[in-house]
Amino acid sequence: MRISYGKFYSRNLGREMEYKIYGTRGKPVLAIPCQGGRFYEFEDLHMLDVYAPYIEEGRIQVFTIDSLDNQTLFGSGDPRARAELHEAWIRYIIEEAVPLFSYINTQANGWEIRFMVEGLSLGALHAATLFFRYPDVFDALLCLSGLYTNEYCFGDYHDDITYNNSPQQFIANMPYDHPYIQKYNEGRIVLCVGRGAWENETLESTSAFAEILKAKGINAWVDFWGGDVRHDWDWWFVQAAYFLPIILGD
Fold first, then answer.
1. 134-172, pLDDT tens digit by residue?
2. Strand locations in 66-155 (E)
3. What is the CATH number of the domain that holds 39?
4. Alpha carbon 66 to its chain's center
5. Which residues form the domain of 154?
6. Distances, alpha carbon 170 to alpha carbons 34, 116, 163, 164, 165, in Å
7. Which residues fall within 8 angstroms of residue 150, CB to CB, at 6 or more apart?
8. Which helix (H) or strand (E) holds 49?
9. Alpha-carbon torsion angle 168, 182, 30, 246, nearest 10
């Protein structure tokens, strides 16, 4: 498997941002790390082992990036400034990282392919935000043990930016005839959460979000696993291995 490292200066964030690429061709996958995670988490914590067969077959190409959670959603100080930095991180992804990754991927495949985006725990919030805000960029979503509202991060503070980065809120208010709904339904959406240790908040959020998606006519595979299924990597490996073939159409 080819693994490559890169970095570039982000005009949106005013800093260098690092990334890794796994594989050479196939459907592009943007992997969002867990809370405060780094671009190398995907490899160092062995999620790469789950994705490796698909990468080696040339079916997917995975791109991993850094989060800024410890400065934004779980940072300290003025909440508006934290929200603005988080929105700048979203712009970095959409305006800078994705175009670069798409160019690399398109050069290998010969045609442009929309991305799958995946995230675990807090990374699932980011993945869902990206998928539901930008359906022209993303057509597949895998969220494991996710939160779908940032109220857990900002508490009673609310503004336009926190709203736009909280799918549980903005999807609930989306008109039933919004053109994005058809685009969502042209793709694949998978949400999974356990009922075991450390899943209380994610189970609550996933349940609430599932009801919102159903009410809006948005097709999603939402799975609630058993009471032994913890909010931890050992179960995320199992879940990812189970759902990847489904998302890829096997």
1. 999 999 999 999 999 998 888 889 999 999 999 999 999
2. 115-120, 138-144
3. 3.40.50.1820
4. 12
5. 3-247
6. 22, 21, 6, 6, 8
7. 73, 125, 162, 165, 166
8. helix 47-56
9. 100
Long-range contacts of 41-49 (CB under 8 A, 24+ apart): 43/3, 45/233, 46/233, 46/237, 47/233, 47/236, 47/237, 47/240, 48/22, 49/237
Rounded Cα–Cα distance for residues 29 and 102 (Å) = 10
pTM over 0.85: yes
Q: What confidence tens digit (pLDDT) does each residue in 49-103 have?
A: 999 999 999 999 999 999 999 999 998 889 999 999 999 999 999 999 999 999 9
- High-pLDDT (> 90) share of the chain, %: 94
Q: Structure tokens of 242?
A: 């189970």
Q: Is 127 strand, coil or helix?
A: helix
Number of domains comprising the chain: 1
Strand partners, 46: none
151 token code pair:
């109220």
pLDDT at position 156: 87
Single-letter amino acid code for the residue at 107: Q
Residue with tokens 């995946």: 118
Query: Alpha-carbon Rg of the chain, whole angstroms?
Result: 17
